[in-house]
Amino acid sequence: MTASEPLLSIRDLTIGFSTQNGFAEALHGVSFDVMPGETVAIVGESGSGKSTTAHGIINLLPENGKVTGGEVLFEGCDLVKLSRNEIESVRGREIGFVPQDPMSNLNPVWSIGFQVKETIRANGIATSKRDVEKHAIDVLKQAGLDDAERRLGQFPHQFSGGMRQRVLIGMGLSATPKLLIADEPTSALDVTVQRVILDNLAELTMLNNTAVLFITHDLGLAAERAEKLIVMYKGNIVEAGDSREILQNPQHPYTRRLVAAAPSLASQRIQAAVEHKTVDEPGGEFDLALAAEERVHEIDAEKHDSTPVIEVTNLTKTFKIRRGNFRSENFTAVNNVSFSVAKGTTTALVGESGSGKSTIAKMALGLESITSGSISIEGADLASMKRSGLMTLRRRMQPVFQDPYGSLDPMRNIGDIIGEPLRVHKFGTASERSQRVRELLDQVALPQELFNRYPNELSGGQRQRIAIARALALKPDIVVLDEAVSALDVLVQAQILQLLAELQSELGLTYLFITHDLAVVRVIADNVVVMQKGEIVETGPTDEVFGNPREAYTQNLLDAIPGANIELAV
Amino acid sequence: MSKQIPHFVAPVDSTPVAEVDSVKLGDKPGSLWRDAWRSMRRRPLFYASAVIALVFIVMAVFPTLFTQVSPTQGCSLQYSNAGPQGDHILGFTRQGCDIWARIVWGAQTSLAVGIISTVLGSFLGVLFGIFAGFYGGWIDSVLSRVGDIFFSIPYILAAVVVMSVLSEHRNVWTISLAIGGFAWASVARILRSEVLRVKNQDYVMAAIALGRSRFTTMMSHVLPNSLMPVIVVTTLNLGLAMVGEATLSFLGVGMDASVMSWGNDISDAQTTLRTAPMALIYPSIALTVAVLAFIMLGEVLRDALDPKARTR
Asked: How many angstroms separate the CA of residue B244 from the nearest CA in chain A?
């Protein structure tokens, strides 16, 4: 076999699923090649068929899925036609697989060593007890885990998410396969961890000349990690080619939309705009960079009055953690934090998991008690507030939460959900309330017919709009957005971010925006508070922090934004 | 690397770009109950069990629709254990009473005990479960331990003891109290675990953040969303309570011997099991079919209310 022949060649692959409503085709004839040693990324939103493609290749489709046509040629052999036994000898040995969720893909009752050794034996890499042990240690060492001998005896719950994903990558690569399929391998991890793990993965695959098929929803990440990009939409490939080329010069209208909506890329364009360079606009309905620039200009023009509406001083929160034997330990989730939010602006609290950002949001909303320090909302101290005071506060400050599927009561209809704050605060008559609900539906650009519908008919983005409408019902001054766009697909995310920006300029809202995604911060926030392990690392205006970070941690976070280092056509 | 990667662009017509996140609505609003009803209507098992359950309920309320023969008047020893004849389609008991008439009139007792004890048991279970689950802390510890104590006593044993003590007042109410008063712990456990799941949902947090008190949040959001498994268990418990009544009556600590009940009839007929087995078998069949109908109904309800089965 010569190097110019593809390792994996997929021709007209169609896959369908039998559902309650009959057989539905999910993949409509997909064709692409992966060369030996090449890294190819498939990018698409949820439902685009990217994971179905990956699972179809190695026959890991769920029970109701079926390959209905086309072929998957791996070194000239059609994997679709192989029997269950034959495919098992290819899976693992020839084609490795790294699954998406590191939390659920290791069996919690077996030690890490047992699971790694099982893989080694199943793939026939080694048979004797000593060889298997030696290989297992090698696998963990290669995956970048120090102290590998001791780690073999540990259990999954003793590993962090990043460490588990390292183990899974090590297992996927243990048999030095020719192809590795990685299905969203780092979506559940913090950005800095993601970067280290993907660097490690790149190193390992480079070493053995392993080809990688990388599935992701993040365009920036895909372009940064792969030389070739395949963009999928609704079960079809809409654009494929050199990744830089596609980012700089997207041709298909859908790809253009994706490029315009990806926060990681927009963030770079904004930086360029701040530095007064001209940038090609990719065009599309939701250009995040354009939206953000407008916002910057508006604020520059107004030079907002800087009366703080939220003032946090020396805020500390400690939790008691039970340690068994009636002993408990204090855990400081938030340590001596002070910042303030000016009226009509957006302040973003950024940090990785465990940084205490959500705890601050909960304390500000009065959902969590304050250990020491104070939060004052428009001059009134939250801790000393009585019930009635808290009630008025709740009229003025409303939250939007992360999980669009959990934030709406499934037993209530939409009219009921949006109208709940109006009922609780005894606003007007029943007909006035329903009038207000219809107004709010208009405001978040949803049809009024939704009034009598239930949340289960809506998509994640639409549910988040309903949650925003509910938050706006009482005409609050402050909205606390706790990871409000993190669970959404990029296009929907861009749409919601734009809606939030519009509502802010229309209603003069103040946003406290909690997120782990720095790229989004760049698009929406005026000021940033960067947090790490309960403490503030750096605060300042967004452009300043992004353009000229003072702390190493901030710099580290910024560098880890996927796609941040890609040269766009400037 | 200087290798050439061809740039492929699909024709726009082949995958037209749709509007981002457009609202697609079904033809009818789908509340949870409506969806459950839709899915139940597709199951033949639902019709079968619902029809049987309905027949027994009608039988209990209007026994005269099913038989013109009096179950107590006109019993004559001359017909003792006689076979079917004339209007008496199932024959006679040892006392010479009509078996079919006694089955029809006995349905009242069985269903009354089943319903009253289940309502009582579910009420206690929901009360304990929701407070334990929602408030947590020491309230949970106390309520859950009380539940554990009741859970550890086999409820038939407890009911036997209670009924022996209350031997002067053996009627539908005391039996229901004896059964329902000891069968609530499982309902409480199920509800508690469901409440623990539901109370961490964001919509509960949102309700509190918008100014609802904890108690009204519990009643208006947590309770309706955690009741589903309880409803399913309730239909199962209804069947089990009917068995419980029959068991107690059979053991002689249930209904007063003068009250018509399937359990009493089975108990009476055991002495003549060899010579006249039908007097025992017919009321047993009635009991089995009625219990089975409610259990199957619970089964269908569970499938219909299963959130994972909701596709939309």
From this structure: 35
Instruction: Map residue A549 onto helix, strand or coil.
Output: coil
| Inter-residue contact A489 to A217 (CB < 8 Å) | yes
Residue count (chain A) = 570
pLDDT for residue A529: 93
- Whole-angstrom distance between the N-terminal and C-terminal Cα of chain A? 41
Largest CA distance in chain B: 110
Q: State the average pLDDT for chain A.
A: 84
| Domains by residue range for chain A, with CATH | 8-248 (3.40.50.300), 305-407+476-560 (3.40.50.300)
User: Which residue has tokens 């007890």?
Assistant: A129
Structure tokens, B148: 């554990």
Q: Which residues pair with A347 in a beta bridge?
A: A512, A527
- The CATH number of residue B191's host domain is 1.10.3720.10
Model pLDDT for residues B149-159, shown as the tens digit of each residue? 988 888 788 88
Does the pLDDT at position A437 exceed 80?
yes
Residue of A503, A509, A429, A430 whose CA lies nearest to A477: A509
Instruction: Give the list of residues 6+ apart from residue A128 with CB closer than 8 angstroms, or none.
Output: none
The two tokens of residue B227 are: 């009741």
Say whether pLDDT at A413 is over 50: yes
- Tell me, yes or no, whether B108 lies in a domain: yes
Sign of the four-CA dihedral A121, A125, A128, A133:
negative
Total number of domains in chain B:
1
ipTM of predicted complex: 0.77
Reported as a single tens digit per residue, the pLDDT across A329-340 is: 788 888 889 998
- Would residue B42 count as lying in a domain? no
Q: Do B311 and A20 lie within an 8 Å CB cutoff?
A: yes
Say whether A353 sits in a helix, a strand or coil. Answer: coil
Q: Which two tokens stand for residue B92?
A: 């006679």
* Residue (of B44, B42, B95, B90) closest to B67 by Cα position: B90
Residue B303 lies in a domain: yes
State percent of chain B over pLDDT 70.
Answer: 94
- List strands edge to edge, sheet with A65-74: A22-34, A8-19, A65-74, A77-78
Query: Is residue A7 a contact partner of residue A74, using CB atoms and an 8 Å limit?
Result: yes
Position A181 confidence tier, pLDDT thresholds 50, 70, 90: very high
**B300-B304-B306-B311 Cα dihedral, nearest 10 degrees:** 140
Inter-chain Cβ pairs, chain A and chain B, closer than 8 A: 137
Model confidence at B299: pLDDT above 60: yes
**Measured between alpha carbons, how far is A354 from A364 in angstroms, rounded to an integer?**
18
**Reading across the β-sheet that carries A179-183, which strands appear in turn?**
A95-98, A179-183, A211-216, A39-43, A228-233, A236-242, B8-9
Give the best residue of A368, A391, A408, A409 to mutate against chain B (max B CB count within 10 A). A409
What residues pair up with A482 in beta bridges, in sequence order?
A514
Q: Which residue has tokens 């085709």?
A: A25
pTM (two decimals): 0.82
Domain limits for position B77:
51-309
pLDDT tens, position by position, A505-559: 888 899 999 988 888 888 888 899 999 888 899 999 988 888 888 888 898 888 8
Contacts with A, B 14-73, CB within 8 Å: 14-15, 17-18, 20-21, 23, 25-26, 29-32, 35
Q: Is residue B21 part of a domain?
A: no
